[in-house]
Amino acid sequence: MIEPILLALIFAKIKGYKIRLLFKNWAIYPVLTFVLLYVISEVMIFNDNYTFIKYTSVFHYFYLLTFIILIIKYKLNISAIIGSIFIIIGSILNNIVIAANNGKMPVFPTLSYLTGYVKSDSFMKVKDIHILGSGVTKLKCLTDIIDVGYCIMSIGDICIRVFVFIILFNTIKVINKT
Length: 178
Description:
The mean pLDDT is 92. Strand 3 and strand 4 (152-153) form a beta hairpin. The longest helix is centred in the middle third of the chain and has 24 residues, at 77-100. This protein has a domain at 3-103 and 155-177. It is mainly alpha-helical. It has helices at 3-14, 29-46, 56-65, 67-73, 77-100, 111-115, 122-126, 155-177; strands spanning 105-107, 130-132, 146-147, 152-153. The two termini are 28 Å apart. The chain is built from eight helices and four strands; from the N terminus they run H-H-H-H-H-E-H-H-E-E-E-H. The chain crosses the membrane at residues 26-45, 52-72, 78-98, 148-169.
């Protein structure tokens, strides 16, 4: 989930906002702590260590909850509502494809094979909700098909990440106006 944070920082910089003001307040540090944990978990996966992968859904839940601090502190109520709509849409899209594929989320790795993030036996080792996609996969366009080399996302996952972008960008915007 580092992509929406980087995009929010880049977009804010392009818009002329001062990014460093974000780091002068304690409210961003719970979010950054979870980002660091996310990076550590991705490095572990790259090194064939799947010990904590079973906790990723709980981890993502708590990660998104850390944004409540920013929402409350900077009164981002409208942004939170808009972002929450994206979370709901993303969750619905993911649940639709999972239901259509017998409770599993098909994954179509491409670039991740080259980077080493996914190996030929990864899905056999992990044994979670994700399975390797095939020709019998239903609703392929909603499955995990967007491969960035260290993460494979669905359209639903991208919708969920929009929430992070909206909250972080608007936090930077509010901080710059005060």
